[in-house]
Fold each of these.
Amino acid sequence: MAGALSGIRIVDLTNVILGPYGTMLLADQGADVIKVEAPEGDAVRHIGKPRNTPGMGPAYLYVNRNKRSLCLDLKNPRARAALIEVIKTADAFVHALRPQAIEGLGLGYDEVRKIKPDIVYVGAYGFSADGPYGRLPAYDDAIQARFGIADLMGRAAGDDVPRYPPTILADKTCGLTFAFSTLSALMHRQRTGEGQFVEVPMFETMAAWLMVEHLWERTFDDQGEVGYTRLLARTRKPYRTLDGWMAILPYNDKHWRNFFELIGRPEVLKDPRYATLNARSLHINDMYAMVEALTPSRTTAEWVGLLDQAQIPNAPVSKPADLLDDPHLVWRQLFKKYPHPSEGEVLMVEPPMRMSRTPPEIRLMAPLMGADSRAVLAEVGVAPAEIEALKQAGALIEPD
């Protein structure tokens, strides 16, 4: 069957990771996502080594699948007029430019809704546009520094040296929020016929994300501690075994009871410091230190067997490359090769969710820059002579 969002058209002026990841999620569900690029192309095209074609780097191939590429120089008034014809056919217009930049192109919300009154208009950028930081640029590392995760990483590591987790945490999390927000507004439009303006600011999104658990005692007291104690325990970490590393996570009363019975020390839980969940949370460093002291006595496989039998959460530590051969992910066929028109056979990651009636799928490989420029404009009624004039003026880009 067609994807759940089949028939929805999204005009996408996003680049790098945040916006393209969000619109990829919608495209995987069947939406017709028209990726609008400037003549220089999306910067992420040039991150990582391509196989055959410049501008077809690995991260670009991932987050731009299932999309069509329309490449226009929007500084040219005729190119902007051509884009307006595309917007007239769209259900949503999404961008990741700073508000001042999108307004400078004449594509702010007030202008776009004159063209398409029921448009769902979504902007994703660093900070709410009308706030004190509204004119600041935002990149993933800067947002990580500002919303607190870099500090927490250092505190949890035990040396209080701030550090970044080795992933673009803010971009991808905000990309999820971007997709969810767009879909929510589309649902409202379907019910009421009303479009709306939607803002997805990175800083606020990540602050809200972090404070799910780290607001902690400040929830009740203006002087209360901020920071979830268990996650800041310096003994909360993967533990060394006789031949490797693994996670061991006794969490509830049953887990801890089974763990101390397993190691022959059931009396530990009679100590008032460790007898209840709340008491253990106040002494969690002690609890994890006991686990850490024991793990070198057995191999990872021995621990996994014992802990699985006792129904105590655990997992060996994997490297990212190990995921390609993980038995569960192999069973799930999460990694699958597809033929790409210019890059040959490429490995892609399948959509992870499963849907019984409208399964998401990879239908199209990431396009060459401007691969669909002529076709998209023809679809919306731009005259062939005008398309050719844009091409001759250098305002419309197609592959060589």
Note: The CA atoms of residues 281 and 326 lie 33 Å apart.
Amino acid sequence: MWAIRDARIALAARAVSTAGTSVTSIAAILLLHDGGVGALGVAAFLAVLVIPTVATIGIAGRVADTVDSRVVLTVTALVQAAAVCALGFAPAPVMIFVTGVLIALAQAFAQPTWQALVPRIVGEERIGQAISWQQGLAAVASPIGAGLGGLLVALDGVAWGFWADAATYAALAGAALLIRTRRHGGAHAEAASTSWTAGIRVVAHDRILVPLFASILVFVVLVEGVNPVEVFLVRDALGASDWQYGLTEFFAGAGGLIGAAIAGRIVGNTVRARAATVGFGLAAAVLVGIGFAPGYWVYAALITLLVAGFGTGNATFGALLTSRTPEAQRGRVYAALNGLARTASLLALGLGGVANALLGPRPTFVVAGIAGAVTMVVAGFAVLRAQRAEASALIPAP
């Protein structure tokens, strides 16, 4: 992997940008929490980050598959850099919401473009390794940024964190210019569909991907509802400080490294499909344990296990989806997955905010975990049936 020049640039730049993004994410949520917006206010902010990805499913997929990747990645990174820089000068709740929209809109176009470009950089045979490396580096970079974000909020120096994030986006734009590998539709640009169903239609023809794709969306609705609740569990129910809230990301990073290491060793789409269901199922089961955590350090240990399971499922499903999708259509497939997953997240945010208000943070984690585990058990049986049907279809008639 690291012998490939463009892979070194892309992986390193995205890891640095991930650290910067974590500074902004943690700082923004803590500022909103300390500003008294409540669980519904935090949920509303997370919803703002979701809507642009949902609204641009069709056009973002077409752009990723037809427009020069260098142009898309450079422009989106510069837009994000400008938005975060502005937030450093005016970190008020209203400004957090406005810049969140701009950052999310640029990310809606950048994400599928990066996802489709990296396999072309490394080659089809290294897809699994590339995705595992990306996830592993993110697992290291994200907690560094999150810990710094929490510390800066505590020290009242959050503006410097936002400006540091802006610098990482500028570096990402520079990396996009340096990468020699480029991806664009060329002669097929005019034929590319802008329909939001274009990527879904590609997946619909794959008997292995369909049950996983559908069940993961359900899993997102059930489990990501805890996102707006987490800060209230950690800060209020467990009595953790701002610094400890940021420190949690270090434990999550350790889990991410474990998950990436496991996923990187899994070869073959049959095993990848099964590993994805087991990993997500384990993550859901651990959520139940988190709901009963007696203190912060038990919670931190469970977070490590949770992210290890989620990381294994995420990386193996990503490799499976990429390797079973035609190269020319990967941008649209990624945009569809990202958009539908964010749509599910939008529903989950509302459910999580309501659940936290009615049940409290602990019961919300328990209920979400049980429902998510049941969902992935059902998905596992569906994947096994699809694999057996596919294997039977390949057996020649006597």
Note: The chain is about 80% helix and 0% strand.
Amino acid sequence: MWPYSEEDRKRLAEIYPHNPLLRRFPLKVWEEALAEGRLRVVLGTRTPLFRLRRDFKGLPSGTIFGPETVIPSFPHIPRIFRLHTGVPRYLQGPFWAEEKIEGYNVRLFRVGDEILAATRRGFICPFATDRYPDFLPRLEEFLRDHPHLCVCCEVAGPGNPFVGEWPPYIQEDVHFFVFDLMRLPEGELLPPPEKYRLLAAYEFPTPEIHGPYTPDRLDPLSQLLRRYDREGREGVVLKSADGKIYLKYATPGSHLEDLRVVFPYLGDVPPEYLTHRLVRYLLSQWELYGKLKGEIWERVGTRILSGLEDLFSRLDRGEVVSEAFRLRFRTRRAFEALLAHFRHAQVKVEVREVREEAGYLVVEIVKIYPRATSFWRQKLEGFSVVD
């Protein structure tokens, strides 16, 4: 059984009568989920909240519950591997293509007197909660005018605390991009035309939006993706006019970039991560450019493996596999909350520098990856492996 406090159980019992979704099942069912670790307390909020750590009773992991509050998990979007067969298979009418931005996904919502940013897994992100006023100054107004909507946003840029990739047109810090609006508590996403009107009305920054396209004329979409590939962008999310069908498709270069970024951390990722991205690269490269030979293979090797020589040298000198992040915070409290989040998630972090700069707290942290360090070091130090 997962360790939980009596205080956690009491909070759950207090929330239960005020939450219609929780009341679908007896309180004992939720108490058992709490004891098993499927349901966890959300840390860092004034209003008591719980999150689903794993799928439960038809509800996806990442769903958040509070008094009269349900924030559904953001749905997983299916991926197609070939435009010219995948699009007509799933889309029958007009659709839009929105730039798929490399970053991390948060849901911004109001509960009580707080506006919070939750990650896909249902953690409260102290960084995004702290920084949203810099990029979404009318968010409070929007949530006041539309209390039954949740704002789905991508946080991207070299100054984010989680993801080692970002769009090449963001040179420093981060940006917020609103890509969807979600109805609460149902979790339905607003159809593109309705969403676009609201995003424009509240001056929210968005990914690039293209369309509408039709399934019988995909050459303009292929041209867009070739341009995105040249510019180092990730890809697109295709969205039907009624908002019922979502599909994602990524550029060949984005798959190579995923492989480049993850290779030093092989001890921390499953082998299928590499296989899936290699398959995606091969199919998208073949579809968009029609060739898999010659200079293509040199590009693959250079892109994926170019950083490993330096990695091996550093490990041979006794260093560890690590990743540096330079972050800006509006408040010291948010920085301390992020460190607490890392401790809770058992992520090893070292703080290298903290200073005041232009009204922000600028912090450099380094994440340490013990499993990846062990993975490479055992091989470099001559230990044998039975395979």
Note: The first helix runs from residue 6 to 15.
